Amino acid sequence: MNAASLILKIIAGVFAALIITVIAIITLVDPNDYRDEITNAVKQQTGRDFSVANMSLSIFPKLSIDLEQAKLSNAEGFSETAFVEVDKVQVGAALLPLLSSSLQVDTLTLQGLRINLQKNKEGKTNWDDLIAAKDDEKVSPSDEQKGDPLSALAQLNIGGINIEDGYLLWDDRQTLQKIELTGLSLNTGAITLGEYFTINIAVTSKIQQPRIDNQLSASIEAMLGKNGEYGLRNLQLENRMSGKDFIIQQLTLKAALPEFSLKEDALSIAKATLDYDISLDNTMPITQSSGALTMGPVNGNLKTQQFKIEKLNLQSNLNGEKLDKAPLNLSAQAAIDMQKQTAKIGELKLQAMQVNGTGEIKIAQLTSEPTVHADVNLAETNLRTLLTQLGISLPTMQNKNSLTRFASQMTLDYSTKPQSVKLTKLQVKLDDSTLNGQLSVANFAKPDINFKLGLDKIIVDAYLAPKTKQEKQTPTADPNAKIELPTEMLRSLSIAGELNVKQLQYDKIKATDVVLVTAAKNGLITAKPIRAQAFNTQINASSQLDVRTNTPKYQITTNTANLPIGEVLIAVADTDKLSGKGSVNANLTTSGDSINDFKKALNGSLDLDLKDGAVKGFNLAQSIRNAKAKISGQPAPATNEVQQTDFSSLIGKFTIKNGVVNTEQLSALAPFMRIEGSGTINIPPQTLNYLVKTKIVGSDKGQGGEALQDLNGLTIPVKLNGDLTSPKIALDLNSILEQKTKQQIEQKKEEVVKDLEKQLKENLFKGFKF
Fold first, then answer.
1. Where are the strands (E) in 443-593, listed by range?
2. Quick check: keyword Transport in the entry (predicted)?
3. Planar angle of CA 724, 727, 728, nearest 5 degrees
4. Rounded to an integer, what distance in angstroms lies between the CA atom of residue 488 and that of residue 485?
């Protein structure tokens, strides 16, 4: 609308300059002899150079003027191309009717009209100086009282206006956009005050970015009243557009306003119709659509700038690879108040494919910095079917009924300056889950995201691919493969959010009251705290990702008591190597771009304090019994015991430096053993080197302790080394033999001493009688 007003103003300015020239010529006998006076007058009025190659004037029987090669120079600082130029101007008026205040003008003809509009990199246009000069003119009170100049005429008759081969260029160096209007033609019928006349317009336009070619033809009937009133009716418009490297490939529009009326300031449209046919890029799910937009009645007032559309209805068909004439119906009411800069679209109803929606939209600050307030309600629909119709392929999911029920409602507020969007009263229902809360995004170039969302329940597995037996046979990913993070995007994020989930299920993990508080700023992303009720205890953790430098850094901490470690390992890692319940505290950091990098850069600490559990995979008691049998030269005793080492208490304190786990403390209490361990675990190669010292204590219970009573008091060294998942276990038999020999020697010493004491007593006092 602003562009059309600008073009009309420029054309009016051109006509005004021509009229000034005509008046000047009429007052001169030979216009060519006074070319300098004419150019000086234009220079004084506009500050621009004006030139004309040839001027001819005839007086009788009609006053007529012909101009050839007229030019108005461009503003200073812009290209040397003329601002406005025209190859030929022809106009004439009958003299005798002027005596009776009647103006009868022949057809005004402009051939080769060329208008050159430019904006430089600083945003200044080549017509700013003309507007400034216009604003500086002071209107005298007497001028204000003169009224419309048409009112001084008893009659106005113009044979018509004929513009041939017109051209307009819009060259915006600030946005690097260029628009060309070529082949502009405008012709009218005879123009008489108070009577309707026809205007026909045709033009071809070319836009460079993106490349769009457009052909427009239109006709309308217009009326100029003696007292300044005007009217328009019977608009017919046809527009054909084609694009290259643009989402719209072709667009055809046909508009009809058969009962269009514009008299004085009153606008009235009984009914308007816009037929369209659009073809889109083949990459789009909708490749073609055709339909009709009807509206009316439409009433408005140009003076108060208030307009109202009682009914607006769009009916169309959508076609695509998986769409065949899918119906789309939209209806609404609209009201616009340009003085208040507001617009309202109410009673909005949408029916399209699987979607049924209602809403209301309010827009403020229409022409300055628009803001939008919208209430939107989408009824329940089958999201899976809708996405399929739109050509979006969905992976196979564990629950075939997932994504079949979707509904949403929200209040949306959008602002252009500062750029932001805010969703409040948000409610999204997906299958059996309901999400509530609010979300806002500001500064789209560098997003600032805030949210507070609550989810009642979700089964994550329902949306994941089905599990197959082949998954266990799938080779692991390359540990050296680089993990590509969207670093620049992460650095640009600014996030402050909170997510609460009442019930969550993922694989074997069932959690309630999940709380996740997250923040991001300049590449530092944190999740703190992370809380959840799971495994009959409260999980407390936090994590951090730092991409402020070229190497990403990670941190994770956890502080959890009464954790059933066996259930956790089965649920998370699908392994059953350790059981027991107790506290697990960890503070770990790492960095890098691959799994191997993470292993090598792992640092931190890990503390365990477990009760009543077992280390699974080997039975220490059985290994000791086998060693005892070997020492005694006996076969290993038959057993069907479970391959695990029970403990009543297990305490471990570990420090990790550059991927190597060092044991600060490792102690365990078993029913007949006291265990102390020391050594290291090298994470990158997955190897360990451990020495476990097991002291046999007096006990006849638990894991065959009664069979080891004769080893009571001995400390048995057990060496574990090699692969972490299947280490080599070796008992130090020599150490057992040495300890057992010493123990037997000590026992023999005691027996000899006791026997000697007995003999001494008997023999020493044998000859004495008391």
1. 448-459, 494-506, 509-521, 524-534, 537-546, 553-564, 578-591
2. no
3. 160
4. 9
Query: How far is residue 94's CA from residue 99's CA, in Å, rounded to a whole number?
Result: 10
Same domain, 196 and 261: no
User: Tens digit of pLDDT for each residue in 424-452?
Assistant: 999 999 999 999 999 999 988 888 999 99
**Residue pair 89/83 in contact by the 8 Å Cβ criterion:** no
State how many domains the chain has: 3
Query: Which segments of 621-672 are extended strands (E)?
Result: 644-657, 660-669
Contacts of 745 (CB under 8 A, 6+ apart): none
Predicted local confidence at residue 761, as pLDDT: 46
Highest mean pLDDT among 63-67, 229-233, 521-525: 521-525
Residue 694 contacts residue 666 (beta carbons within 8 Å): no
* Domain co-membership, 119 together with 233: no
For residues 170 and 266, state if they share a domain.
Answer: no
Q: Where among 209, 237, 257 does a domain terminate?
A: 209
- 198 within 8 A of 220, measured Cβ to Cβ: yes
> With b meaning 16 or more CB within 10 Å and e meaning fewer, what string describes 312-335?
bebebebbbeebeebebebebbbb
- Name residue 277's amino acid: D
> Against a cut of 0.70, is the pTM above it?
yes
**Residues 596, 681 share a domain:** yes
Residue-range definition of the domain harbouring residue 77: 1-135+152-209
CA 228, chain centre distance (Å) = 52
